[in-house]
Amino acid sequence: MDKDLKLFELLSDGEFHSGEVIAKLFGVTRSRVWSLVNSLEEKGVIVSRVRGKGYRYRGGSFLLDSNHIEQKLSPLALYYFPSITSTNDIAREYLKTSDQPLLVVAEHQTGGRGRRGRQWASCYAHNLLFTYGVPRFSAMQGLEGLSLLVGLTLVDVVNASLGVDAKVKWPNDVLINGAKLAGVLVEIQGDIGGDYSLIIGVGLNVNETPSVDDREVTSLMKKYGRAINRSELLVAFVDELRRNINLFCLEGFSSFSGRWNEMDAYRGCQVQVEQGGEILVGLSRGVNANGVLDIEVEGELRSVHGGEVSLRAVYE
Ligand code: BTN
Fold first, then answer.
1. Is ligand 1 within 6 A of the CB of residue 147?
2. Is cis: bond before 82, omega within 30 of 0?
3. How far is the CA of 113 from the centre of ligand 1 (A)?
4. How far is the CA of 187 from the centre of ligand 1 (A)?
5. 210 lines ligand 1 (CB under 6 A)
6. What's the predicted TM-score (pTM) here?
7. Per residue in 150-172, is it b (16+ CB within 10 Å) or e — as a string?
8. CA-CA distance, 270 to 294, in Å (whole number)?
9. Is residue 149 a contact partner of residue 190, using CB atoms and an 8 Å limit?
10. Can you tell me the distance from the alpha carbon of 226 to that of 297, in angstroms, rounded to the nearest whole number?
């Protein structure tokens, strides 16, 4: 087992563990234990060090239970990593040779990516960072709606599991009280007109609220008040997502557009949309059956398509 994982697992009982005991247990020197603790801290885990007592982590988050996830989602192929560059990048590699859907999950990413070239930051073993990959995806429907569907599925699953009040924000963010809870990065590999693999990356802030400079972010723990079992939540989400993707392949986004509009954080609000240098300001009128957003500008409806678009509320 990876030493970071092993140390986190040991410390997650919330008790003090002396450097000497850890060193013996792991078969390493005390200075190696020191550097392992530093490595966890570099990944955002706060460990207290008290002379004469040792090390303690009081965060209350636990490692993902990969056996449980694998068993519950079988026959899905699961790839679990303590720390990797980006689950989307790894899924892309595996999809080249896979003929089954797969799930890549990480406790930490060194190069997590968001939409519009942004980074996705997240502390070690506190949040959900994963990619669901589908090889040879062949939906006849536009992918625009599919990425909206992922955000909607997240909203429905966290609201049903935890009784929170999450909402979608076009195209595929998830918010609680206007603060970002989760983001979705859908990519494809191959030819959109022919055979391609679908890469659905999700970052969900569960037990830690990352510090991000330029926007308000939140986590489920902040809203719910206590640490959440990430493995259960992941299983519930992937299970629901698989079902929704099947329905999407049969009926397209039209079966979901009504629900999406119901859960839209900005429906009927004054919004500003920026797309390729152009800025539109108007009233958000919700999405149509293909997932295209309608904005009412001076009495006329303007259609906004997904992709590299940003939307924010305008407060007057
Ligand atoms: C966004 O809101 O900008 C999308 C964020 C998507 C982040 C997730 S974390 C797991 C997966 N791997 C990545 O590198 N990105 C996605």
1. no
2. no
3. 5
4. 10
5. no
6. 0.93
7. bbbbbbbbbeebbebebbbbbbb
8. 12
9. no
10. 43
For residue 87, how far is its CA from the centre of ligand 1 (angstroms)? Answer: 8
Task: Say if ligand 1 is within 6 A of residue 86 CB.
Answer: yes
Ligand 1 nearest-atom number relative to CA 116: 3
- Tell me, using a 6 A CB cutoff, whether residue 207 lines ligand 1: no
Determine the Cα–Cα distance for residues 208 and 204; give it in Å rounded to an integer.
Answer: 10
- The ligand 1 atom nearest the CA atom of 120: 7
Q: Quick one: tokens of 183? A: 């983001």
The CB density around residue 2, as the number of other CB atoms within 10 Å, is: 11
- The atom of ligand 1 lying closest to the CA of 85 is 14
At 52, list the tokens: 């004469």
Task: Output the pLDDT for position 109.
Answer: 97
Residue 139 burial by Cβ neighbours in a 10 Å radius (0-12, 13-18, 19+): middle
C-alpha–C-alpha distance, residues 236 and 60, integer Å: 21
Is the C-beta atom of 120 inside 6 A of ligand 1?
yes
Over its length of 316 residues, how does the chain's per-residue pLDDT go in tens digits?
A: 788 899 999 999 999 999 999 999 999 999 999 999 999 999 999 999 999 999 999 878 899 999 999 999 999 999 999 999 999 999 999 999 999 999 999 999 999 999 888 999 999 999 999 999 999 887 666 788 998 999 999 999 999 999 999 999 998 899 999 999 999 999 998 877 777 899 999 999 999 999 887 789 999 999 888 899 999 999 999 999 999 999 999 999 999 999 999 999 999 999 999 877 888 899 999 999 999 999 999 999 999 887 666 787 776 5
The bridge status of strand 102-106 relative to strand 77-81 is parallel
Helices of type H across the chain: 3-11, 19-26, 30-42, 66-73, 87-95, 143-162, 220-224, 230-251, 254-262
